[in-house]
Design goal:
Strand content of chain A: 15-25%
Shape of chain A: elongated
Largest sheet of chain B: 6 strands, mixed
Number of strands of chain A: 14
Distance between the termini of chain B: 27 Å
Distance between the termini of chain A: 29 Å
Number of helices of chain B: 8
Strand order of the largest sheet of chain A: 5-6-11-8-10-9
Number of domains of chain B: 1
Order of helices and strands of chain A: HHEEEEHEEHEHEHEEEHEEHEHHHHH
Shape of chain B: globular
Structural class of chain B: alpha/beta
Radius of gyration of chain B: 18 Å
Radius of gyration of chain A: 33 Å
Structural class of chain A: alpha+beta
Number of strands of chain B: 10
Order of helices and strands of chain B: EEEHEEHEHHHEHEHEEH
Largest sheet of chain A: 6 strands, mixed, barrel
Strand order of the largest sheet of chain B: 6-7-8-3-9-10
CATH class of chain B: Alpha Beta
Oligomer: heterodimer
Amino acid sequence: MTLAMLGEAWRAMGANRLRTLLTMLGMVIGVGAVVLMMSIGQGAQYAIKQSIAAMGSNLFILLSGSSSSGGVRSGSGGGYTLNVADGEAISELPGVAAVAPIHPGSAQVIYGPNNWNTSVIGTTPDYLSARSWNITSGSAFTASDVRSSTRVALIGRTAAQNLFGDEDPVGKTIRIRQSPFLILGTLALKGQGMDGRDQDDTILIPLSTAQRQVFGTQFPGSVRMMMVQTTTQEIMPQVERSMNELLRQRHRIREGMDNDFYLRNLTAAADSAAESTRVMSLLLGAIASVSLLVGGIGIMNIMLVSVTERTREIGIRMAIGARQRDILLQFLLEAIIISVLGCSIGLLLGIGGALLVESLTGTAVIISVSAVLVAFSVAATVGIFFGYYPARKAAQLDPIEALRYQ
Amino acid sequence: MPDALINIAGLHKAYQTAAGPFPVLKDVSLSIVAGEFVAIMGHSGSGKSTLMNILGCLDSATTGEYRLTGRNVAQLGKDELAHLRNGTIGFVFQGFNLLQRMTLLDNVALPLIYCGVEREERQVRALDLLSKVGLADKAQSLPNQISGGQQQRVAIARALVNRPSLILADEPTGNLDSHTSAEIMALFESLNRDGITIVLVTHEDDIARYAQRQIHFQDGRIVSDQVTPAKVTS
């Protein structure tokens, strides 16, 4: 029965191909636009998430306060108001997962005939976990390396390529500012940072080694910055409060006086970037949905015309025994076929368009099954919803009136 | 009459107009037994077409009782009425009312869709009826490819496909020339001989003459109900 109806609906659509095609076009464009926009939006979100993950999650950056000498004030991180003991105290706080004091710098590095100027970061093993940075070969240095200022190093992919080419760096000795360092391990590929810098162009060495043997410092044990990672994102505000309190206490800052340190929530900044792309893709999706709605209205429009045009046919069908629900089903099926076909073509075009955008611009594009399913089911629902009213109108025609209709 | 196919008693029908109710049928009582061939005659506006619509369960009476095969039609729901139109009644219209987009075969098979007959059987039965009206070779033609007389034969085949006990024909020869009309009426006669009750609306005496019984309408009332004179002699 339904099968026979399906055949009839198909035939009715075939009888007016151009009109059917144009009606379908509304759905095609609607679904195509939604799928394309969602793919691009999700691609952008994915790219942002990737760079956040590369940065490390649940991170605070703790910068020392500015110093001032002779009226010249350095910026934040300019003084050495933080020290390793602060770090150790912070790591005792509940909710803190890792604390990594950092002494950044850059230095000329030599291996054999090659030399390369790269960023050299003195830090502790916690730095790796805070930035969720893995070792691909060899091993990381340990806390005892930091305690005893051994000359060991971990090398990033870019630095390694420039110094070693295809050679395996592990176990080799490089010279940083004339001091020999043993490469313990290589760091996993990290890619571009949020600021566009190549994060793989780096060498990590123990903090104490950096301070005492490479860069030298007036205040050994004091650092300009630390990375603090919390166990969860939810606990970050609480940790921020307790860290503030702790440091004010340790630095003997009286009530009403300014902090001599700066605490920045990196994750919050990254999250806002992610949030803005999310809103952006939502907006794109919303605009695309409007075309879906317009497509649905197009279906209703054409179905209403079709019902009027075929009033006499409806009368004949009723006279030979069609029930109201038979007529309803017939017209509803037409609307459903148009919208489902339109959806399918729109899906293909949307996916095709997304792939085209990817290959032309290199923008990351993600075609998620859920987005496709949502677009499809929304479109089908729209078609059925807008097809129902004309179909009901057809079903409720008075058979005598309909038969008289010219 | 216990075994009457159609039994109408005290039927009134009025249409609501701006000037108040306009009576079309006034106190019509009528009984038609299975196997009869009845012509309902009258001028236009005499109420015969309204009666036909009521007989065909397309319209309902304002007051009065209509029993079809013993069932009180007024008490039936829309689906049951559709079922009656589908299985008990076959319609033949003046304007043929075939669906132009469909082949003749599909047109004839159409009523069977609404009672859930399988495709194979639909085709077999439709083809059987088409050959009965002599158009089996045109099964795949479209209505506009054949003559009016042929179209009416297809319409009759469609009316018959679900084996109805009653054929209602509303001016079935109104659009046909006299020769073709005679052919169509001969077809009705042979159907009647097979036991199908036929109720025919016409305003032409020579068409009405094919029926065994003629009922004349005037201003919504039955003015005469008699056996066809020619049939008495034959």
